Amino acid sequence: MDDQAYMEMALQAAREAAAADEAPVGAVIVCDDAVLAVERNRREEWRDPTAHAELLAIVAASKTLGNWRLERCTLFVTLEPCPMCAGAIIQARLPRVVYGARDAKAGAVRSLYHLLEDSRLNHQVDVREGVLAEPCGAILTQFFQGKRRTKSRPPHGDSV
């Protein structure tokens, strides 16, 4: 399979997150063409601020391999990783990350910070951005527009 096919898998996980009323982010980890993990955000479900799709996928892939070093793996994620996830990517020694949409508010790969390619760190990551960027960004935009509409709408019968 190619990058786009794996990103489609991540996008499906993002759709599942949206259906569960989670921020629609999905992640897939692949090693030697074998899918090791498919995860989605679970922060609301688990009431855990660290339950980002990337972190959950890293944990699942590490358990599957029996090793915290994911040195032959690629992470596919629908949204540019945040600083917390970028740190975990570096710690897991992932050599490659492919992401869909940029995150102008929290992106730590190319938008706000360049953590994965910082030569001062002990590990750098090959990054490919923009794979299925439009549908990856659209699902997030639609989700948060819906949240804002719901939040701003007064309860039935009340006036503003």
Short description:
The protein is an alpha/beta fold and 160 residues long.
Characteristic key phrases:
single chain, 160 residues, alpha/beta, 5-stranded mixed beta sheet, 5 helices
SSE inventory with pairings:
Blueprint: H1 3-19, E1 26-31, E2 34-40, H2 43-46, H3 53-65, E3 73-79, H4 83-91, E4 96-101, E5 126-129, H5 133-152
Helix pairs in contact: 1-5
Helicity range: 25-40%
Number of strands: 5
Strand content: 15-25%
Order of helices and strands: HEEHHEHEEH
Helix count? 5
Task: Provide the gyration radius in Å.
Answer: 16 Å
Termini gap? 53 Å
Taking pLDDT < 50 over at least 5 consecutive residues as the criterion, the unreliable ranges are none
Average pLDDT value? 94
Strand order of the largest sheet: 2-1-3-4-5
Task: Specify the overall morphology.
Answer: globular
Q: Which class do the helix and strand fractions yield? A: alpha/beta
Main beta sheet strand tally, sense and closure: 5 strands, mixed
Can you describe this structure?
The protein is an alpha/beta fold and 160 residues long. Helices cover 39% and strands 19% of the residues. The chain is built from 5 helices and 5 strands. The chain has helices at 3-19, 43-46, 53-65, 83-91, 133-152; strands at 26-31, 34-40, 73-79, 96-101, 126-129. Strands 2-1-3-4-5 form a 5-stranded mixed beta sheet. α1 packs parallel to α5. The protein is globular. It starts with a helix and ends in an 8-residue tail after the last helix.
